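S.,

Sequence below, as promised.
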Amino acid sequence: MIHIVFNEADVKVLEAAIALDETLSGNVVQIKDDLAVGPLGNIYIGEGIEARRQWWRDVLDGGDYHGKVDSGEPDDYQTAAELVGTMRRNEAETIWIWAAQNKHDVSGYYWLLHYMKEFQGRVFILYLNNLPFINEKGNIFYPSWLYEIPAKEFLKAKKLAREITLSEFEVDPDEWIKICNENKGVRLLEGGKKLEQKDYDFYDAELKKFITPDWQKASRIIHQFLTKSKQTTGDAYLLWRLKVMIAQEMFDVQGKVENMKEFELKTK
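The prediction came back faster than expected:
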């Protein structure tokens, strides 16, 4: 059994769940790219793959994750190739895809499905869509992310595993290709597995609300956005958007505009 997740924090909690239940025994594999943002055109061929990598280079340039694109990590295409090779060599192997109700996991699911079709009947989905769980305090809650679920609760979640149907293997990749061809920069989850798309500046208006007449480090502005906003995204993307707005001379700035802790900004 191979477990696939889409967030680094999910790996740890799922491995803890496996330690509690040997029937879940298997390797945990993470798809690392945040496919809820950025270009998706020709995403499965060289031209599109390189275009997306170049976009990430531009986004991460001079920031807290500078150089990560060319460090060899993440390389989800290599991960996908290794999964396909394993499944072809071992016909008894199965894959469990774990996804919570958020745009990041759902986008990752759609991307991965392209490589899984030949293994229909051996690929399972555990989509924790509007399902209640019990948190560490004993209260019922509805998780948006897998890592929010206590490890022991995964033992209940495993009962939700079901085969990805032939119909899903036909319909979902078509929906994903439609999304890829729309040439938008931000994906949001409407509900279920339905994604809607917005332009690259979607988060800008909300992000600007946290910029005040007083000097603040970019890291503080981003932290406030992440803790108070309903729709959020990764800190690297938000740092890039701040830099775009600074380049448009929308704010006063002091310090070296690179890492988020190195510069401050305020309203003009």
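The chain has two domains: 2-178, 204-267.

Coffee later?
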